Amino acid sequence: MAYTLDIDPVARAQIRALPAAGAAALTDALKVLELVPERGEPLNADNPYGGLYQLPFGSGCGLITYLPLADQDRVDLLMVTWVDFGQY
Hints:
Number of helices: 2
Structural class: alpha+beta
Mean pLDDT: 93
Shape: globular
Order of helices and strands: EHHEEEE
Strand content: 25-35%
Strand order of the largest sheet: 1-5-4-3-2
Low-confidence stretches: none
Number of strands: 5
């Protein structure tokens, strides 16, 4: 079963700002979310059932924050963060 991805407008803007390497890595990560959103980790380790999850991608340079809604077969993508460690 595949989940539908609902991408927040803020996340869409963050995705548009990704470098080419980040965009390619994100594509692979989104395929994972569509199939097994529980693959991510709880956003807050102290509240593992809080609903929000995160999934690292791109060799740790990227992080997706999302809300899986299994009862609706949907994943709400809330934020995409990318850090280029090569600049430091």
